[in-house]
Amino acid sequence: MWFGSFFFWIVFFPVILIAGIFLFFIIYAATGMSFLDFLGVMFDSGTKLTCWHCGRETPCDRKHCKHCGKELQ
Prior knowledge:
With 73 residues, the protein is mostly helical. Helix content is 47%, strand content 8%. The chain has 2 helices and 2 strands, in the order ααββ.
């Protein structure tokens, strides 16, 4: 198996590392935010409310519960 060989990782690991750093700088130049800020935006779950009707958590930006459909107060 060529992909599991030691030679593969010695030669291609720096190439993969440089490509990842290059991609990081392209994302930073295009969006103006750092990688950690980018991850924060991507994985932001937001604040949650507990529905009075079913007792399950629902994102606070909704007017109705996503589980039972009743109006949130």
